[in-house]
Amino acid sequence: MLYANYVFYSNNFADKVGKPKPGDTVVVSGAAGATGSTVGQIAKIKGARVIGIAGSEEKCNWLVNDLGFDIALNYRDPEFASKLAKATPQYIDIYFDNVGGDILDHCLKRIAKNGRIVLCGAISQYNEKQPKGPAFYTALITQRAKMEGFIIFDYAQKFPIAIKDMAKWLQEGKIKRKEYIIDGLENAPNGLLKLFNGYNTGKMLVKVNDENVKSKL
């Protein structure tokens, strides 16, 4: 299945790690990407209030108008920190982190008592010579919060369930998806750079051929 990888991340976020419930405030960074957009929609299905963080107004509009996020914030906005605080008056019950760095720190400052931080990725740090660790980790102590990372292979036995749930939600129109297609294998390296720069919206794919290729085996 084409979306198996991030379906797996997203579904286990709902049932195993984050465990969103009705009324929770869930914040998702990298929200306009393949994983983040799916996580936010699953959180809505679970009855949570969802705030997405993305890198452009266009992406933020897509999250709210097309995917049904309650709020979307542009982290490039100079007033991002104050807008995040205003959007989370009851603080953050679950933060799903795809980016690390400064945004993780901003969300640590807003984490609720017994809050959960789910570590899925740190795309803002992968190319840094000296990755930045969280500066406000003491919030985990004062708020009795939990920070946990996870890898898809930890839940391999649940893979068929994740696919079944996603297929049902797609059919019901509860989950929407978007593809960003790179045309030609020769353009794949530039596509990878765009991925790390946050250029794409939705799932990035490389289109290698327009024709139906028959196997010679």
From TrEMBL:
InterPro entries: ADH-like_C, GroES-like_sf, MDR_fam, NAD(P)-bd_dom_sf
Alphabetic keyword roster: Oxidoreductase
Alcohol dehydrogenase-like C-terminal domain segment(s): 35-166
Oxidoreductase as UniProt keyword: yes
Alphabetized GO MF terms: oxidoreductase activity, acting on the CH-CH group of donors, NAD or NADP as acceptor
Keyword Oxidoreductase: yes
Protein name: Alcohol dehydrogenase-like C-terminal domain-containing protein
Organism: Rhizophagus irregularis
